[in-house]
Amino acid sequence: MPLSDAPLLRALAGDRPAQPPVWFMRQAGRSLPEYRELRVGTRMLDACLTPDVAAEITLQPVRRHKVDAAVFFSDIVIPLRLAGVEVEIEPGRGPVFASPVRTTADVERITAIDPADLDGTAIAEAVRLTVGDLGDTPLIGFAGAPFTLAAYLVEGGPSKEHLRARAMMHADPESWNRLAGWLSRISRRFLEIQRDAGASVVQLFDSWAGSLSPADYRAFVAPHSRAALDDIGLPTIHFGVGTGPFLGDMRLGGVASAVGVDWRMPLDEAVRLIGPDAVVQGNIDPALLQAPWPVLEAHVRDVIDRGRAAKGHILNLGHGVPPETDPDQLTKIVELAHGER
User: Fold this and answer.
1) Structural domain boundaries of the chain?
2) Residue 4 pLDDT more than 90?
């Protein structure tokens, strides 16, 4: 099958394959015992930057679950690490930055780094190794969205409400826009490296956008996310968590080929907000992966049914795979989706 006929790419073009294409966010690793075995003794960011390890982890869920796409194994802070920003992943906490970016001087210091200088050698090699083994299965490249990256940078690590980042938007909008604009270029450069090495689709993750009001999202965030994806030359997916109040804006004025929808809103209701001419992705509730199969099966069938309201539908979770998930549940979802007519 030519790659252009892959169900995921057909769905992103607004076509309706016989079965809805399915993949899972955070499918690369997380719940797989083979992933945990491979990661023994290797720190997260080191695994991301070791090409043969990153490629193997990316391929594992494709082999096991027979999903319709691979998603590149990496982390949203990797492009910042490649740009020389000091960051580590603390187990049980997440990304932690040695020097938070909170003042005008901090912003001037970090934005002096040229995104064009980002060394993507290891990333490009990992993508090439992966694509070489995928055959007719497309690879999805990804990057963190400017707001989510800024939220980590300004707070210095994970936060529930991202108060400092949201405060900067209003207290010092010039610095905010300078920082978010720089992060947009960093994310775009990371996506371009994956594109040039063979990725067929890219997805922008805005994990913390749900902490924003619609007005703040439109004024301070959407323009920078749009710049990260505009004219990138590949189909694009834009996903955020808790973005129901401004779901229509997630299309970024038509720049996004598809909008990811989290689990909070029935998919047909989301389509009414996004538009029936849009392609949507989602939105199985990750919590239901812990439910007995008959309960999960009924939920998945309901998601597929509601997804028919959209021009195209990519079956996925409404967020990432929880680490404690039984991998067999994911395999069953794929088998169910591939049996749909």
Assistant:
1) 3-338
2) no
pTM of the full structure = 0.96
Cis peptide before 316 (omega within 30 of 0): no
Q: What is the dihedral of CA 169, 173, 174, 179, to 10 degrees?
A: 10
Residue 1 pLDDT exceeds 80: no
End-to-end CA distance of the chain: 20
Quick check: is 226 catalytic? no
Catalytic residue (one of 35, 68, 75, 285): 75
Note the CATH number of domain 3-338. Answer: 3.20.20.210
User: Distance of alpha carbon 155 from its chain centroid, rounded?
Assistant: 21
User: 10, 16, 39, 272: which is the annotated catalytic residue?
Assistant: 39
Which member of 64, 68, 102, 152 is catalytic?
152
For the stretch 188-237, pLDDT in tens is: 999 999 999 999 999 999 999 999 999 999 999 999 999 999 999 999 99
Closest CA to 11 of 219, 316, 328: 316
- Per the annotation, the verdict on 166 as an active-site residue is no
Asked whether the beta carbons of 71 and 203 are under 8 A apart, the reply is yes
Residues in the chain: 341
Residue 341 pLDDT:
53
Which ranges constitute the DSSP H helices of the chain?
Answer: 7-12, 33-39, 44-48, 51-65, 78-82, 104-111, 121-134, 146-155, 163-171, 173-197, 214-216, 222-229, 267-274, 293-307, 327-338
At 294, the amino acid letter reads P
Determine the average pLDDT of the residues in 8-28: 94
